[in-house]
Amino acid sequence: MNTPAIMEKLKREHRLTKEEWIFLFDNRTRQSDEKLFRMADEVRREHFGNKVYKRGLIEFTNYCRNDCYYCGIRKSNLKVSRYRLSEEEILSCCEEGYRLGFRTFVLQGGEDGAFAKEDMIRIVSAIRSRYPDCAITLSIGEWDKAAYQEFFDAGADRYLLRHETANKEHYESLHPKQMNYERRIECLQALKEIGYQVGCGFMVDSPNQTSETLAEDMMFIQDFRPAMVGIGPFVPHHDTPFKDKQSGTVTDTLFCIALLRLILPFGLIPATTALGTISETGREQGIRCGANVVMPNLSPTIVRKKYELYDHKICTGEEAAECVNCLNARMEAIGYEIVVDRGDSPLWQGEKKA
Ligand code: 5AD
Ligand code: FES
């Protein structure tokens, strides 16, 4: 086995064996990293040119019933000042977002029992009727299949649910017992069966991650073939059990982004806020290594700091318009262009409802 040959195979076949994946993770050099980054950018340009899609992120609740060891808004963190946006507040984020050229709204929140199924359906329906030309993405965790179906029928197009890790033991080391790996995967399958454009993903360099668990992530993704994959570095939060764990690195994250681009040539892959948090130029580097999406925040500035999944999160003081201008300039400076577009997957053939 040798790295250049494996990378060529990945580019050609979009999948590798577990041994090949592990070999890639265990035999990195600066040179082979650079080669992979170039390959990923080439593939990305072939299908998306220099276009970057933007998604408006609305963090509408930081209440969460879960207790993930890594996450700043876990329920055991009593220091968090909790908030919920009202339906009107959510809609005014969309209004502002639409004006700023967003054509995808991402409703993200903790698993907050106070937003019942009916509430989510009402909110999705309201956005759907006001913005027929926009995509609606939900990122609201685990529900039963019937609920996922009703959200879809109400007009949601996409769903983000990071699998977090495709290794059961690793999953259990990141989450208390109330969360379970099998259920996570069942949710992802259900979402796909319903017809959502589905996004999975994981944190790079999370505690207990190894070449083997990463290989399993890649194997899961090459089989599942999601429309989107969100990855960013693990960044410790000071009020969580993982507060003393090491932060992920930029190059490890770029390496994974580039690999994902070769698995999913048409994939929608964000350069995440977490990547922008560990490096001033993180998002730019992500875009240059195969990413094609940015997800600036549309939440009202007064709540931004409260949605703190990890320490030092960027853009918590900026207005949405400032982030849009900032990102436009950043992308332009490296020769890429943020476009006004829903930014569906080019492979997407899903039934569109009127
Ligand atoms: N560092 C980086 N990413 C995190 N997430 C949660 N906590 C952290 C952290 N400390 C990610 C998880 C989750 C997504 C919304 O944010 O992967 O799925
Ligand atoms: Fe928010 Fe740059 S993207 S300030």
Task: Just give the CATH class.
Answer: Alpha Beta
End-to-end C-alpha gap: 51 Å
Broad structural category: alpha/beta
What does the largest sheet look like? Answer: 6 strands, parallel
Question: How much of the sequence is in beta strands?
Answer: 5-15%
CATH architecture: Alpha-Beta Barrel
Binned, the helix content reads 40-55%
Reading side by side through the largest sheet, how are the strands ordered?
A: 2-3-4-5-6-7
Could you say which overall geometry the principal axes of the C-alpha atoms support?
Answer: globular
Counted by DSSP, the helix tally is: 14
Describe the structure.
By secondary structure, the protein is an alpha/beta fold. The protein has a single domain (3-339), classed as Alpha-Beta Barrel (TIM Barrel), CATH 3.20.20. 44% of the residues lie in helices and 12% in strands. It is built from 14 helices and 9 strands. The chain has helices at residues 3-13, 18-26, 30-48, 87-99, 117-130, 145-153, 168-174, 181-194, 211-224, 250-263, 273-278, 282-288, 301-304, 320-333, and strands at 51-54, 56-61, 104-109, 135-139, 158-160, 197-204, 228-233, 293-294, 337-339. The protein has a 6-stranded parallel beta sheet. Helix 1 packs parallel to helix 3, helix 2 (18-26) packs across helix 9 (211-224) and helix 3 (30-48) crosses helix 10 (250-263). The relative contact order is 0.16. The site of 5'-deoxyadenosine has 12 residues, from loops. One of its GO terms (biological process) is water-soluble vitamin biosynthetic process. S-adenosyl-L-methionine binds at residues 164, 184. This is Biotin synthase. (3R)-3-methyl-D-ornithine binds at residue 139.
